[in-house]
Write a structure and sequence with these properties.
With 741 residues, the chain is of the alpha+beta class. The chain folds into 5 domains: 103 residues, no CATH class; 48 residues, no CATH class; 81 residues, no CATH class; 191 residues, Jelly Rolls (Sandwich), CATH 2.60.120.1440; 157 residues, no CATH class. 37% of the residues lie in helices and 15% in strands. It has 23 helices and 19 strands. The strands form 2 sheets. It has a 17-stranded mixed sheet that branches. Strands 1-2 form a two-stranded antiparallel sheet. A hairpin with a 6-residue loop joins β18 and β19. The longest helix has 21 residues. It is globular, with a radius of gyration of 37 Å. About 20% of the residues have low confidence.
């Protein structure tokens, strides 16, 4: 079985037999270029803004009849290679062929049903139109008919005389349908106006060209007409204009500066190229050739045009080609410059498909984070960082499509099984769906929990929340954080099988599967529940949605993200500064977040910035140590570091509650901010305390906290939990009146 485009489409849309599908999948596993093309097809067929050829377009791949013949496997063999090569070079044509193939496979089992009355009505349309036009023809007098026929014959003869007699060859192999008589009658009347309109358009264009300059080589619009004229040096012994040293070096005579300036805009200087010693020519003056030869340096395609993807090859410089000198006969060597081929390491595993989102990729050579261009390929072992408030989407070669929801750090890897995708997740919130293919496998490492997720149905969707959790009051450098994994099926059927487990766990729609990695606890499967709020993009606040769009317009793709975010810290908009600081926090730069905690102008964003700092503590002990080093430069650095830990119930009962109330009277704003945030999260009652004010201005609210400290009521209203809120999908019915008493 050959790896052709038609075979790949048959495999993607489940047309092949099971044995042939397995054979093709094995070949795809060995050829990463084919896997990349498969995921490229899945991405472009779901792109909303993809353009399409015109309905009446002509050409090998533009003609709808040619596309239909290719899909139906009746296109002549000598044209299949060029057809597929054009599709591989153009997303528009590739999407046209793939979309047509997909639609045909959908209707193979159930052809379209056309009612007999509708069929008869369509067949009778030409005769009905002819009958409708018949009365108007009868009203024309014989004299007018003769005059009209003479005008038509004269116009037709003039048009035919102006046409070339050679046969015009078209790319399409289909004959042009004959125009009905009732259409010809109306079209003849418009020949004369068309000629007049064409003449008027020609005059307007000629006048526009004249405004740019005279009708010669100095006119920018006509420079192309003189590009092929050769400027020839006749050589010794013939009439020639000697070349002065100034002309060799690009200089001009005093009286010719203005003409030289004009000529330089429309035509490059004709200077003989340097001749290498090994390709030297006969001694004597070397002529300058005005007509340049364009030497193709594109890597050659494979010999068999029907092959799907040409084998990758490094560009090799070709031997020096020569251009004949029309004056003397010797050949002047022209050096070809090879086009460098940028080749990334590792196989292609996916493609970034979002248009208005931000996805960061770590550049290991420059050691910086950069934006991933839209529709760019994603290779193995690349670290991908999703920044706060953004929801980028990637399409994997296995047929899975992943939409990230907020801050995430993942890495794609080569899968162990054919037809699967593999991903290591440090922390992420993501929604995994298929592109209409059932049985899509995805090998995952979720915060240390390894297993395989299989989307059983074509409409299956799974939401995954994987992160490391550090209980309040834990020392991030000493106490280990444990992984929390939640797998929620939004639609269809999905199964999850832990690596090494004997059986897979089926997760029906609306059910939640929960793991605590590192704890000796059995997984919990329960439901049905309502889907978590973060799945829906509308859960993002309006200010975050607007700010993320504004920052996207300010980013520069070629500049490292941390450099650009540092520049945005001086933006006049407080929301832009706050989101830039949060993004830097997930790039392990914490100084802007700590600075914002002492700025009253950023008080509306303190809660989200504290969440970003606490998330950094749970990621790893190394990152927590880096944050501690940043805090060492502050006067109250140790206190701030301790307040970021939070407090357990036991610590509150000991000295934690007293420390928090005492910190409300601190002279440092960031200490007051963190103390009030802890009390609010623990008790749920802020008591209208405003940390941006001086302590002497908040005596009333501070005294209320002191009273609660004496009463011993500073305690958790609800114990902290790393799991999502479980809201039953169907609430229980209320007991009837008179019962349950």
């Amino acid at each position: 079985m050959r790896l052709t485009l038609r075979t790949l489409l048959a495999y993607l849309y489940n047309v092949l037999e099971p044995a042939e599908a397995e054979e093709f999948a094995a070949k795809m596993q060995k050829n990463p270029d084919v896997e990349g093309l498969a995921q490229r097809i899945r991405g472009i067929t779901h792109k909303v803004r993809m353009t399409a050829p015109r309905i009446d377009a002509k050409g090998l791949t533009d003609d709808a009849n040619n596309v239909a013949e290719y899909v139906d496997n009746v296109l002549p063999d000598d044209r299949v290679g060029d057809f597929e090569r054009t599709c591989l070079e153009s997303d528009m044509h590739l999407a046209e062929v793939a979309g047509s193939y997909q639609i045909l496979t959908m209707v193979l089992g159930k052809p379209a049903e056309v009612p007999p009355p509708l069929r008869e009505r369509i067949y009778n349309l030409p005769s009905e139109e002819a009958d409708a036009l018949a009365p108007s023809r009868e009203e024309v007098s014989p004299e007018k008919s003769r005059i009209r026929s003479r005008i038509v014959k004269a116009a037709t003869a003039a048009v035919d005389a102006s046409r070339p007699q050679a046969e015009v060859k078209t790319t399409s192999t289909h004959p042009v349908p004959e125009v009905p008589e009732y259409l010809k009658e109306g079209s003849r009347l418009g020949v004369v106006p068309m000629i007049a309109a064409s003449l008027l358009a020609f005059l307007v264009v000629a006048a526009g060209i004249r405004t740019l300059g005279p009708y010669d080589r100095t006119n920018p619009a006509l420079a192309w007409m003189y590009a092929d004229e050769a400027i020839v040096d006749a050589g010794p012994g013939q009439n020639e204009t000697p070349v002065t040293p100034e002309q060799k070096t690009g200089g001009t005579e005093p009286g010719e500066e203005q003409n030289a300036a004009k000529n330089s805009k429309t035509k490059p200087e004709a200077i003989a190229p340097d001749v290498p010693e090994e390709n030297s020519v006969e001694p004597g003056p070397v002529a300058a050739v005005g007509k340049k030869e364009t030497v193709a340096t594109k890597p050659p395609m494979t010999e068999t045009p029907a092959e799907l993807v040409p084998e990758p090859a490094t560009t090799v410089p070709e031997p020096a080609k020569t251009v004949p000198n029309p004056a003397k006969g010797p050949k002047i060597p022209v050096k070809t410059v090879p086009v460098p081929v940028v080749k990334k390491e590792g196989p292609e595993l996916g493609r970034y498909t979002s248009d208005e989102q931000v996805l960061a990729r770590y550049d290991a050579k420059e050691m910086v984070w950069k934006m991933v261009p839209t529709r760019d390929l994603i290779f193995a072992d690349e670290q991908l960082q999703v920044l706060p408030t953004y929801r980028p989407q990637i399409a994997l070669s296995s047929g899975a499509q992943i939409t990230f929801a907020g801050e995430s750090l993942v890495q794609l890897e080569a899968a162990k099984k054919a037809g699967a995708s593999r991903m290591t997740v440090q922390y992420a919130r993501m929604v995994v769906v298929t592109v209409g293919m059932p049985g899509v496998p995805l090998e995952l490492d979720l915060s240390g929990l390894k297993g395989t997720l299989i989307l059983r149905d074509a409409d299956a969707g799974v939401a995954i929340d994987s992160r490391r959790y550090l209980p309040p009051g834990s020392d991030p450098e000493k106490d280990p954080a444990f992984g929390v994994v939640e797998i929620f099926t939004t639609s269809g059927r999905a199964t999850w099988q832990v690596e090494g487990a004997a059986e897979a766990i089926e997760v029906p729609a609306g059910h939640l599967l929960t793991y605590v990695v590192g704890a000796d606890e059995e997984p919990d499967l329960a439901g049905p529940f309502k889907a978590p709020a973060w799945i829906d993009a509308s859960s993002l606040s309006d200010i975050d949605r607007v700010t993320s769009r504004n920052i996207l317009k300010m980013l520069e793709p070629q500049k490292p993200l941390d450099v650009r975010f540092q520049e945005l810290l001086s933006d006049p908009a407080v929301d832009v500064r706050a989101l830039a600081a949060r993004c830097l926090g997930y790039l392990d730069q914490f100084e802007p977040l700590l600075k914002d905690l002492s700025s009253a102008s950023q008080k509306a964003f303190w809660t989200s910035e504290i969440d970003a700092l606490r998330h950094a503590l749970s990621r790893s002990p190394e990152i927590a140590g880096r944050l501690k080093e940043n805090l060492a430069a502050l006067k109250q650095g140790k206190t701030i570091y301790r307040l970021l830990w939070g407090y357990s119930r036991e610590q509150l009962a000991d000295v934690g509650a007293a420390e928090l109330v005492e910190s409300l009277e601190s002279s440092d704003v960031e200490v007051r901010v963190l103390a009030s945030d802890n009390l609010r999260r623990i008790t749920g009652a802020p008591h209208n305390y405003r940390p941006e004010r001086r302590p002497d201005e908040s005596k009333l609210t501070i005294n209320k906290w002191k009273e609660r400290l004496k009463d011993g009521t500073i305690d958790y209203k609800t114990l902290p939990s790393p799991f999502m809120e479980r809201v039953p999908l169907v609430p229980k019915a209320a007991p009837a009146a008179g019962k349950g008493k």
